[in-house]
Amino acid sequence: MDILLVGGLWLDGSAWDEVVPALEELGHRPVALTLPGQGDGSTSATLDDQVSAVLAAVDASPGKPLVVGHSAACTLAWLAADARPDKVTKVVMIGGFPASDGTPYADFFEPTDGVMPFPGWAAFEGPDSADLDEEAKRRFASAAIPVPEGVTKGVVRLADERRFDVPIVVICPEFSPAVAQQWISAGQIPELAKAKHVEFTDIDSGHWPMITQPRLLAEQIHQSAA
Fold it and tell me: What are the TM regions of this chain, as residue ranges (predicted)?
């Protein structure tokens, strides 16, 4: 199966370097996307540019790809399901949830000079980063790509109710499936509350399992594809 891998904020396609070969060994055709503004040198990219890049990858697939979104990019994966509900076979969301229509994509930290840089590890103390040692944190921070303000402040637009028919698998790293279900029941994740087919799976990692548990993550993506 074609599997499109979309990393979250500050990441480019290299974030999946250890996941891609593991998925290939399992018989898949993974494609790790480098998004506009996150690895192509652009600082003027917009959310629409990133959505277009994901849709171009979906359209380029000869079949019905599995679209994997990590963290904030869970929204990008869901926007792909909204725009191509008959083409996306399933959406996998790792450590995140889709934003609602009319809300900002990822306006989490203040931008500087038109971009939102990685804010440092104090913002991710606790379960998010507990499985990253100091050297891994140093490498991550030095490679982190500031995300254009046109992306982070872009407004999410969802239009096709058929997106709710697309199956979803939520891979839960720093939170448990039970907690995720509580959030949905409490109305904090409206898009998943309306989705008709949602499954949950746990992974023993922090927020970035593609770095700390790549083979286990690949196995869980493989199981989601099956």
Answer: none
